[in-house]
Design goal:
14-stranded antiparallel barrel, 2 helices, mainly beta, 334 residues, single chain
Length: 334
């Protein structure tokens, strides 16, 4: 819109050289056609990876669990099927992003992400996850945009639907010295079809910033708020949560390095269970780190190798979880 207005003003000048008027008129006409009939701009990627994971079923890090009874504490061994199972796996991920300019000067962004993991020796740990996000950027004011977001997610685990989620958000961003900070409010409703007592609603603050230069790009994100139980039966009741994330990308040799670090903390509002440390309130700390190197080998094609590390610790040993993974794969971009 701004470009069309500028060219229109130039074409209206009386002192414009005759040789420039016709090209400018044609350019203004093309821009007006694009604004009146905006086109989608899309890009996407398909990742295919094979590798090995140390904890396919996200089992506890310990082989036994301590339960508290009125007569004292009893330590019980976990059944074999509830212990960590390592093995080979294949992973497929497809991502699509689309953007359409709006006649008002804003834009409409769509993003979809589909992930599927197959573990031939542990079928109960297979999963498929779908995330779809729609974002509207309202016409620019001052030095940024107002944003409205709608997102849906679904996860199937072990052949069964584990949860569905709906997200709504409102935010405001700015342009600031090569960075784009954003702050807003976010709400998320989660539904667990087979365990309805786990249903919850998160409401909180979401803030992030993306900075880039000619050689690197990095992102910082913060999510802070309260997760309210939808009923009275959720173990632990309401929860206070905070999530931090840092992602970093830069070229290295003839390829690219991507690093992603996530930190999270959660504390329950009530005792989790009278059988675990006599009804103590649960707290959790989580860390996840991924490091990837990708190397182009043909137009639109990349080979990649990545390593992943995850660690969760809690005052209730049942929720201590460790995991490591190593992947090799190819990526197709378009």
């Amino acid at each position: 819109v701004a470009a069309a207005a500028l060219l229109h003003d130039l074409a209206a000048r009386s002192d414009l050289p005759p040789g420039l008027r016709a090209p400018l008129d044609r350019r203004v006409e093309k821009l007006q056609q694009r604004l009146s009939h905006p086109q989608w701009r899309t890009r996407g990627a398909l990742n295919v990876r094979v590798g090995h994971e140390s904890n396919l079923n996200q089992a506890p890090a310990h082989d036994s669990i301590a339960l508290t009874f009125p007569g004292g504490e009893v330590s019980l061994l976990l059944a074999e099927r509830y212990r960590a199972r390592a093995g080979a796996a294949a992973s497929f991920e497809g991502t699509v992003q689309a953007m359409r300019p709006l006649p008002s000067g804003g834009r409409w962004d769509l993003a979809g992400d589909l992930r599927w993991r197959w573990a031939p020796q542990t079928a109960a740990a297979d999963y498929a996850q779908l995330d779809v996000t729609s974002q509207w950027a309202l016409p620019r004011f001052a030095d940024g945009e107002a944003l409205a977001l709608l997102g849906v997610s679904a996860l199937r685990y072990g052949g069964q639907e584990l949860y569905r989620a709906l997200r709504l958000g409102l935010a405001r961003d700015w342009l600031l010295d090569g960075c784009r900070p954003r702050i807003g409010l976010e709400a998320e409703w989660r539904n667990y079809p087979d365990t309805r007592n786990l249903d919850g609603r998160f409401v909180g603050l979401a803030a992030s910033t993306v900075c880039s230069s000619g050689t690197y790009r990095q992102m910082f994100a913060l999510r802070l708020g309260r997760d309210e139980a939808r009923g009275q039966q959720r173990p632990g009741g309401d929860q206070q949560r905070i999530d931090l994330r840092h992602a970093y990308t830069r070229p290295w040799r003839s390829g690219r390095i991507d690093a992603d670090l996530s930190l999270a903390a959660q504390i329950d509002g009530e005792g989790y269970s009278p059988l675990l440390q006599q009804g103590a309130r649960r707290w959790l700390h989580r860390l996840a780190f991924r490091l990837e190197y990708s190397q182009p080998f043909a137009a639109g094609w990349e080979a990649m190798v990545s390593g992943e590390l995850s660690r969760q610790r809690s005052n209730l040993a049942l929720f201590d979880v460790d995991g490591r993974a190593l992947w090799l794969g190819v990526r197709r971009r378009w």
